[in-house]
Structure formats: C-alpha cells, structure tokens
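Morning. Coffee machine broken again, so started the prediction first thing and wrote up yesterday's gels while waiting. Chain of 161 residues, entered below exactly as on the submission form.
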Amino acid sequence: MANRFSKAVAKIYTFPVFTQSFLLTKLFCTMVKYANTSGVKIIAVSQRQTHLTLKNRKKVQNHIGGVHAIAASLLAESATGIVFGMNVPDSHIPLLKSMTVNYTRRMQGDLSAVATLTDEQVTLIQSQDKGDVIVSVKITDESGLEPIDCEMHWAWVNKKR
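Came back before lunch.
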C-alpha cells in the first residue's frame, strides 16, 4: 500500500542514480526542517530499510570534537521515522512515542544509521487502525563500531478522531 511519501520516493528513484541521494534528502528536509539544520543525508530508502549518514562537522560537534549526543539521536530518529513513514497510510498520523538512547562509547568521526522494519511490522502498520512498533536502528561510526544503542518506539493513529 503506497502513501504520498512512498510515491514521492518511488518517483525519485526514476531519476539518475547520482541525483537520488540529494533528492531524497531534500524531500525529507522539506518535511522535517530540523533534520536539514544538522545535515542528515539520506543514502537509500525502501519500504523495509533506510540508510542515513551524518558527517562530523563543526555544527554538530560536542565539546570534545565528536558528534553531539542529540545529533546522533536525531540521526536515529530520522532513520526510523523515514522507514516507518514509508508504511503509514495517508489517513493516519505517525508519532514518535518514546526513544531510549544509551551511549556506550565515544563516537569517532562520521555516523551511519540503518533502520529496519520486519514484514510483520509492515503488515501491522498497514492493516491496523492504530498501534505501535519498536523500529530497529543500528548506528555505527567510522571505526565500524556501534557507539550508541537506540530503541525508537513509533505509533500511528487515525487522523479522524
């Protein structure tokens, strides 16, 4: 079941490959203005998985030169929100219900986020009038390790009360 967002993503994938990441990022940042502020970049989007990156640049750094904790959380929230949003019907509203972020080690360099939904979660989102799921996300830094563990709890409700 396609919604307006997934249709726009599908249209972008008809353009030349070298433009797709740029266009996907622009599409997302017109809808989520704050993501544009931090420089989140979308690499790939599908119904089941998203891949985003965040460069360790001055505007997202903390006092020790790493990516700031909130910027890393934004990356996780954006990755999970996009894959979740690809599946929520237009008649419903996606809502972040809660997030748990545990910082396990110092972040080194740029970050990458991959968020994934299972087939069962997609079926649930597309078939139930309201509900919630925990969307899996894996954040890695330039060392290839996971400096944070995240749990993003997303919900959907009907627009009409």
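The mean pLDDT is 94. Going to sketch it on the whiteboard this afternoon.
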